[in-house]
Every structure is written in structure tokens, then in C-alpha cells.
Write a structure and sequence with these properties.
This protein is of the alpha+beta class and 221 residues long. The chain has two domains: 39-66; 70-220, Sandwich (Immunoglobulin-like), CATH 2.60.40. Helix content is 22%, strand content 45%. Strands 3, 4, 5, 7, 8, 9, 10, 11 and 12 form a nine-stranded antiparallel sheet that branches. It has a three-stranded antiparallel sheet with strand order 1-2-6, with no helix packed on it.
């Protein structure tokens, strides 16, 4: 190929090719992806912290000593409690007051399971109707246990039963397993599962009251 010459016939050598520009694909998009991921993770962390903070606030408002939800047994009727041949026959009724003293917090009782125990052995179980408890409200639960169940009492347990049979006072424990949600304004918390234990009861046969610490029950999580 003939070499190009200038206008005056001078020779300037071969033409210089234009400079090449190199581009590394994906580098900019990779940085953008990392930034977006970090931003997303920070949003998730802040959201989780906010939800946890709201949950702790609601729990504190409800279970602080001033406005604590209270459970206590008000009435008990025991008309039968007989143990023969490892079979326990019983007829037992509890009235349990639930007091919500909070002005702005309601409670959804989505599940209520009532259990009766004697000498650490469960002898009956009842599922109660779910309900919503409004602000500054007192609700009475009526729990009835009636039937017979195999219960084995040996050694000290049998001695304790015979002693209580002679005195006419029986140590029976009532336990409520709950699944509840709290409502603060339009906000509803997630469900959690407190357990209510009423275990300081001395229940008289054919009586309408129970002795103990005023029938108060403990709340455990």
C-alpha cells in the first residue's frame, strides 16, 4: 500500500491509530449492588429494633407494678374428691378474676387452657372460649372440672392425700396456659404465651371458699 504524503510532498510516516479506551464491565454495577445491599440490611435492622422496642414498651406498660394485669381465684366449689384403686373422682369449679387496669391497652386471649393438678399430676384439662378484654375491665372465668382420671399416689403422696382427707382441705393447683396479644391503639403485638399458676390454694370439701394467699396467682413467661 502506498504511503500517504503531505501536501508539499513530504513523507510523515504511517498514520497513528486512535488511542484505545478500555472499560471494565460490571465494576460500577457491583459497587451499586453492594451499596443497595448495605442499605437494605440497615433498614431491616432498624425495623427489627423498632418492633422489639414497641413490644418491650407494651409489655412494660402492661406488667409494670402500677398497672399489672392481675389474676386471682375468687370462688372455689369442691363437691367430690375421692381417690380409690388409683382412680381419682372429682367435681371442682373455679371462678378466676382477670383485671386489666390499663387505660389504653386491650388484651386478646386467643387461647386459654385450664389444667388441674394434684401432687404434681395433672388430672383434668379444659379449653375455654377465647375473648377480648377491653381497657380497665374485669373478666370472670368459670372453670369446671368434673369426671374421673387414673392417678397413682404412692408413699408420701398417698400419706399426704390421707392427711388432707382427714382435714377436709385439699391442695389443688390451677394452671392457665395462655396465648395472648396486646392492642395499643391500632397496633397489635405478636402472640406470646404466659402461664398463670394458682398453687397456694387449700380447698375445702363441700365448701365455697379457698384458703391461701388471697387466691392470688403468679404470672410466668
Amino acid at each position: 500500500m502506498a504511503e500517504k504524503q503531505g501536501l508539499n510532498g513530504a513523507y510523515y510516516g504511517p498514520a497513528i491509530p486512535p488511542p484505545r479506551h478500555y472499560h471494565r464491565p460490571g465494576r460500577g454495577s457491583s459497587c451499586c449492588g453492594c451499596c443497595c445491599l448495605v442499605t437494605f440490611l440497615l433498614k431491616v435492622i432498624f425495623t427489627v429494633l423498632a418492633l422489639v422496642g414497641l413490644f418491650l414498651l407494651v409489655v412494660w406498660l402492661i406488667f409494670r407494678p402500677i398497672n399489672k394485669v392481675k389474676f386471682h381465684v375468687t370462688d372455689v366449689a369442691l363437691t367430690e374428691f375421692n381417690h380409690t384403686n388409683n382412680m381419682l373422682r372429682y367435681n371442682l369449679t373455679f371462678n378466676v378474676n382477670i383485671r386489666n387496669p390499663n387505660k389504653k391497652i386491650g388484651i386478646y386471649y386467643d387461647r386459654i387452657e385450664a389444667k388441674a393438678f394434684y401432687e404434681g399430676q395433672r388430672f383434668d384439662y379444659q379449653s375455654l372460649t377465647p375473648f377480648y378484654q377491653g381497657h380497665k375491665n374485669t373478666t370472670v372465668l368459670n372453670v369446671v372440672f368434673n369426671g374421673q382420671q387414673p392417678v397413682t399416689l404412692q408413699g408420701q403422696e398417698l400419706t399426704q392425700f390421707n392427711s388432707e382427707k382427714a382435714s377436709g382441705l385439699y391442695s389443688i393447683t390451677l394452671e392457665l396456659s395462655l396465648r395472648v396479644r396486646f392492642k395499643l391503639g391500632k397496633v397489635k403485638t405478636t402472640r406470646f404465651k404466659p402461664k398463670i399458676e394458682c398453687d397456694d390454694l387449700k380447698i375445702p370439701l363441700n365448701g365455697l371458699s379457698a384458703t391461701g394467699s388471697s387466691g392470688k396467682c403468679d404470672i410466668k413467661f
